[in-house]
Amino acid sequence: MQDFVAHPEHGIAWISGASSGIGRAMALKLADEGYKVAVTARDHEELAELQAEASDLSGSIIVLDGDVTDAEDMEHVLASIEYGHGALALAVFNAGVCLPVHAQELKLADFQQSFAVNLQGVVNCLVPTIRHMKAKGQGQIAIVSSVAGYSGLPSSAAYGATKAALINMAESLKFDLDKMGIRIQLITTGFSDTPATKNNEFPLPPLVSVEEAAEQISTGLKSRSFEITFPKRVTYMMKLVNLLPYGLYFRLINRSSGWRARPLDKHAPPVMPHPAE
């Protein structure tokens, strides 16, 4: 079955976590391409500002408040799209939270919130979306993951675990979705200039702007690739590093991040808020 590639004439695009960062930039990019874009987040004011900013674009923004951690909310969002605006052609599940985790001060809440937003939040969106697209016989879904899902990184025990799960989940679902006419893609980002990277605890390569990230994702959505990954100099390097034996891997990450020299009792930075807030 030929892969379905969504275009504005096919129906609505839906972006979760659209009030800031990559999600917001993607909403503007797709609206500029002519899509009616349904945007979801918990901060109504931010979404309303986004809608106003898109007023001069060829497409438009549809504000649908909702919390991805609430499965009933996501059912209502999909119902609002389906019965109020038309068929859902493209879904980009982007909402996420990055909470630094340190073994010397583990907090159950950091794992619970990370799993609820980053992993269960995607599942809460996927279930009604796949049901809707199955009935239509076509659709396109993209899930935003991260290079942190390729392998373990310092302070990333919760965030990285959720992103690794998303990678595995997208890979696994592809086998059945291919036969249903539903195209699924994985968006694996390097390090973008978003709220999640503002207080990072180790040196990062040059950050990609959210506008450049949106451009890369838009191009990837039109391609035949399963994985949309950028910047490739970072993501491909992480793929290669992940092939190293563990002894070399930990030595390299410790050296490049300066983590071994970091005092164990150094206080962690403030936790990052849900980017949809």
TrEMBL record:
Origin superkingdom: Bacteria
Cellular component GO terms held in the UniProt record: membrane
Keyword Oxidoreductase: yes
Family: Belongs to the short-chain dehydrogenases/reductases (SDR) family.
Keyword Oxidoreductase in annotation: yes
Organism of origin: Rhizobium mesoamericanum STM3625
PANTHER family named among the record's database cross-references: DEHYDROGENASE/REDUCTASE SDR FAMILY MEMBER 7B, DEHYDROGENASE_REDUCTASE SDR FAMILY MEMBER 7B
Listed name of the protein: Putative short-chain dehydrogenase/oxiroreductase
InterPro entries: NAD(P)-bd_dom_sf, SDR_fam
A Pfam family reported for this protein in Swiss-Prot or TrEMBL: adh_short
GO molecular function, one term: oxidoreductase activity
Keyword annotations from UniProtKB, A to Z: Oxidoreductase
Gene3D superfamilies xrefs: NAD(P)-binding Rossmann-like Domain
